[in-house]
Design a protein that fits this description.
The protein is an alpha/beta fold and 250 residues long. The chain has ten helices and eight strands. It has an eight-stranded mixed beta sheet with strand order 3-2-1-4-5-6-7-8, with helices on both faces.
Length: 250
């Protein structure tokens, strides 16, 4: 690290769990964030400011004025602009050293597999079941750790799925692909603005821990938040040997 980096990341370097070596590891890491909205905004901002050297942001949606209530990477000038491009510019304005790749597209199929294969950690910041399953399947195939978050109304959840750990489940162990839930959307149900900030920030924290190799992470534990009472509950999630996605891959 040069003198500017030593100063910028000094508060990380002071932590025994990180230090010079850990910060160097972050600087050489690559995070893939799928979704640059409510969850992806704080996740991207914190990963960028923390010094993750390369960040790929993917989102095919454009910024709408209704997003500004909670999607803090975007401002009024970004309305009508692609979210991945807008968020990448915001991260770059905070830390111009980060190598940012903005993909103004819905990642699926081979494109999704290629981007997952290139990343060291994947953050699922999307809002639909089919995409979550596709991201999980790609992470299982390429043995990449996945940090998944969700938030709607006043309720949220976050989990880590890391197939490098023989005891860790994948997303499909908890949410089987065959059990398609009724989709709920912010446009219909609403979402408490700070809730996505809480969960997206936690996704960034878990991703940083995975990149640094410090823990324990949330692998095998699903945490759920009721923001009305601001109470957390936790569900232990075992690996399912008969899981149609990860069964037999450990």
């Amino acid at each position: 690290m040069n003198d500017d980096q030593l100063l910028r990341y000094s508060r990380h370097i002071l932590l025994d769990e990180i230090g010079d070596e850990g910060q160097e590891r972050l600087l050489s890491s690559h995070a893939l964030i799928v979704g640059a909205g409510g969850l992806g905004s704080p996740a991207a901002l914190y990963l960028g400011s923390a010094g993750v050297g390369r960040i790929t942001l993917a989102d095919d949606d454009v910024v709408d004025v209704t997003n500004l209530q909670r999607q803090i990477a975007h401002d009024l000038a970004a309305v009508g602009r692609n979210k991945a491009l807008s968020a990448a510019d915001r991260v770059g304005s905070i830390n111009p050293e980060v190598q940012l790749q903005a993909l103004a597209q819905r990642l699926e199929g081979q494109a999704l597999a290629e981007q997952v294969a290139l990343a060291d950690v994947v953050l699922d910041c999307t809002d639909n079941f089919a995409t979550r399953q596709a991201i999980n399947a790609a992470c299982v195939r390429h043995r990449k750790p996945l940090v998944s978050g969700a938030a709607i109304r006043f309720d949220a959840q976050i989990g880590v799925y890391d197939l490098r750990d023989a005891q860790s489940p994948c997303y499909a162990c908890l949410f089987p692909p065959s059990q398609v839930p009724e989709e709920v959307r912010c446009a219909v149900m609403g979402v408490f603005a700070p809730l996505v900030g809480i969960v997206g920030s936690m996704q960034a924290a878990e991703a940083l821990k995975l990149l640094l190799g410090i823990g324990p992470t949330l692998a095998g534990r699903l945490q759920m938040l009721d923001a009305r009472s601001m109470r957390w509950s936790e569900l232990k999630v075992p690996r399912q040997p008969a899981c149609p996605v990860c069964g037999g891959r450990h």
